[in-house]
Design brief:
heterodimer; A: 72 residues; alpha+beta; two-stranded antiparallel sheet; 2 strands; B: 653 residues; alpha/beta; Substrate Binding Domain Of Dnak, Chain:A, Domain 2; Rossmann fold; 4 domains; 6-stranded parallel sheet; 27 helices; 16 strands; 10% strand; globular
Chain lengths: 72, 653
């Protein structure tokens, strides 16, 4: 991401450059609105996400209610 | 109060009910007045499974029946009132499971055709979900192309329906404890079709005559629906059309436009409607519309097809089941195209009073008086274009008797299980942990799935909205599908702002932090499988027990009417969820059967049914159940937090 600078008045110095907004401006439209799955591009990324995001089903190292490290 | 106002809480619907009266149009609201339900059939005490009947075995009115009377309360074949009620009930399950699952089969057939390159216009849009299902079903991924993987998935999906042994594959997604319970109780389905067929066999005269055994098969077939046919439909639709993500939409009859061609897509399958969405945007169609004096083509949805195209494209939603006739009463609908399920035959009669053309598209769902343009997956785009063209050419035929209500509401839809998981943790750490933590700390009291139909025997949308408002006021986050979701969206409950207005303080604070509404739209009625996945993720994340039956959750169908709703309720219950239905209850003719479903089921399956027509009382039954589960988990009281200093720590050792 490219950071944008923003000039502001400061009490001692006349003007300082500060970090500008880091969010995307405006409201996404159409099918992109709320879309997040397109952030995962390659098959490797998608498989990795399945292991982490959907770890309840797809990660062998996941210890949830059903796979405890130290069984109760 | 004007008479129409007693029939719906939705002002747009009230206006159209009044207009229908003025126009001399007969609607479901009129028929509900003139034709009362059969009191014997309504409670499951009528058997018409053979030519010796129908046999009616009603309970005596207003008093306890004597043992002698009970002994005599039988059909000609000797079947007791218990057998008759249980038979009727599980035939409803079979009808519902068949509807959802045949929908799933239709999607699987299209899916395989797409994978083989035999369905032009369709493509695999969600590789992520393709890989997910491949991992679920043990399909090799490696360096294979999406098409190769999809062919394997399509063939496995189709074989799930006709399978005789081995079990439905998606059962493996359920919590391990639940899978063990299903195996132990003998209700793990062997295949989808087999369990439905077996219900039809067992309920034939002279076969299964033990109500407990009949109801057990009902659970088995319902699980084959929820964790089988419906889940296959949801997952394959996601692969073909994309997994839903939050999308802003608008809802209610006010989405119809006076100056544009109005084409309503109604039914349940998104297969053809996805193509209609594309065809309606083609430049030549827009030009044709302009040449006919229209300013554009306005697509709108109705019922669950609407939920599908809303979630994936933001196509506005005109209404739910009881609004289908009312949409035509506006006089502004040029074409209503229908596929399968919940389509009133009276549409063609209502359409005759205006200029509207009704188009059927499914070989298995035709209506006399409608135009039939059959959906052909090998040539879907041509079918879609023919439909859009019919609508455009009908635009100049509109009469002057047009009245489009102004009402339309914003909503945010598209909360698939995957998106909820993402919203709670992002790509870096998608997780149900924040939900579980907030349930444990008490900001969220529990989770409710409120789903199902409209029913003309009760005031349109009233039960849904009253129940859901009561639940969120008491910090219960609500997941919704189908016509229930549409009702609450029309009431403005599906925007993030609704949290501050209607939700309890704890739930509102969580909704504000995550940026979600207190009532989440998860899709169409086959998408109740998404609710099963969300519940399973809650279990697997930990801290709330080892099974769905231990979660502080509950389900409801406050305005149910279809057999599909009974099947959904039965698989909620069979998955361990306490589920309450309103309106009427189809086994009240047998106290034993009703008692078995309402009480004994809990000891067997961890979930049980309840019946309560008052939506507020029903909401409190759900809240009481949630509190019972919270107590069992030991999270019913806020625990005192003590910061240990070093001395205190040393004392511990």
């Amino acid at each position: 991401m490219e950071y944008k600078g923003k000039k502001k008045k400061a009490p001692v110095k006349k003007e300082v450059e500060v970090l500008g907004e880091t969010f995307e401006k405006g409201r996404p439209e159409g099918e992109e609105l709320g879309g997040w799955r397109q952030k995962l591009e390659s098959r490797e990324e998608k498989l990795r996400y399945l292991q982490t995001g959907e770890r309840y089903w797809f990660d062998k190292d996941w210890y949830g209610s059903e796979r405890r490290k130290n069984p109760a | 109060m004007a008479e129409a106002e007693t029939k719906s809480i939705d002002s747009a619907s009230v206006k159209m009910i009044e207009k229908a009266v003025r126009d001399g149009v007969n609607t479901a609201f009129d028929r509900a007045e003139t034709m009362k339900p059969c009191p014997i059939g309504m409670v499951g005490s009528c058997c018409k499974h053979c030519g010796m009947g129908p046999c009616r075995v009603p309970l005596p009115k207003g008093r306890e029946e004597t043992p002698e009377e009970k002994q005599k309360r039988r059909g000609l074949c000797g079947a007791t009132a218990e057998t008759i009620a249980a038979r009727n009930f599980i035939r409803m399950v079979a009808g519902g499971a068949a509807a959802h699952s045949d929908h799933g089969r239709g999607v699987a057939e299209l899916f395989l055709a797409v994978a083989k390159g035999e369905a032009p216009g369709y493509e695999i849009k969600d590789e992520q979900k393709l890989l997910q299902v491949a991992l679920d079903w043990g399909v090799e991924i490696g360096d294979r192309s999406n098409q190769e993987i999809a062919i394997d998935i399509g063939e496995i999906a189709l074989s799930e329906f006709g399978k005789q042994e081995g079990g439905v594959l998606f059962l493996r997604r359920a919590p391990l404890k639940r899978q063990e319970l299903w195996q132990r109780e003998g209700v793990a389905p062997r295949g989808i079709d087999r369990e439905i067929v077996e219900i039809m066999h067992r309920t034939h005269i002279g076969v299964d005559q033990d109500y407990r055994n009949l109801l057990k098969q009902g659970v088995r077939a319902a699980i084959a629906d929820g964790w089988g046919g419906s889940m296959i439909a949801t997952e394959l639709q996601d692969i073909l059309f994309g997994t839903p993500a939050p999308v802003l939409g608008r809802i209610n009859l006010g989405v119809l436009k006076r100056d544009e061609v109005n084409l309503i897509i109604h039914g349940h399958e998104p297969l053809l409607s996805e193509m209609i969405v594309v065809a309606a945007q083609e430049p030549q169609m827009l030009e044709l519309a302009k040449s006919k004096g229209a300013n554009g083509i306005n697509l709108a949805g109705m019922c669950c097809t609407a939920n599908e195209i809303l979630m994936r494209h933001g196509v506005p939603l005109a209404g739910n089941f009881l609004q289908q006739e009312l949409a035509l009463v506006t006089g502004a609908v040029d074409v209503m195209v229908v596929d399968i399920q919940c389509i009133m035959q009276s549409l063609t009669t209502v359409a005759e009073c205006y200029h509207t053309k009704i188009i059927t598209t499914a070989a298995k769902a035709k209506i006399p008086g409608a135009i039939h343009i059959e959906f052909d997956e090998h040539n879907a785009m041509e079918s879609a274009r023919a439909i859009v063209k019919t609508a455009i050419e009908n635009f100049p035929n509109r009469g002057k008797n047009i009245d489009i209500p102004e009402e339309q509401t914003d909503l945010v839809a598209g909360f698939s299980h995957e998106t909820i998981n993402y919203l709670l943790g992002g790509i870096f750490r998608a997780s149900y942990r924040p939900l579980n933590d907030n349930i444990i700390n008490g900001r969220i009291r529990g989770v409710a799935g409120v789903v199902g139909c409209n029913n003309a025997r009760v005031k349109h949308n009233e039960n849904h909205v009253a129940m859901v408002k009561e639940l969120i006021k008491n910090d219960v986050v609500v997941l919704q599908t189908g016509c229930s979701a549409i009702a609450c969206a029309e009431a403005g409950l599906m925007t993030p702002e609704a949290a501050a207005k209607y939700a309890g303080e704890g739930l509102a604070s969580v909704c504000e932090a995550v940026g979600i509404p207190p009532v989440l739209h998860l899709g169409s009625c086959v998408d109740n499988s998404r609710i099963l996945m969300a519940a399973t993720a809650m279990v697997k994340d930990g801290g709330l027990g080892d099974d769905i039956s231990e979660l502080p959750v509950a389900g409801a169908g406050p305005e149910w009417m279809s057999e599909k709703a009974i099947s959904i309720g039965q698989y909620f219950v069979g998955s361990g969820v306490f589920t309450v239905f309103g309106v009427n209850w189809p086994t009240l003719g047998s106290n034993e059967v009703t008692e078995f479903l309402f009480k004994d089921f809990e000891a067997i399956y961890g979930g049980m049914w309840a019946f309560e027509p008052d939506p507020i009382k029903a909401a409190h039954l759900m809240i009481d159940h949630i509190d019972k589960k919270r107590k069992a988990l030991g999270i019913d009281k806020a625990r005192e937090r003590v910061l240990y200093d070093m001395a205190m720590r040393r004392e511990l050792t």
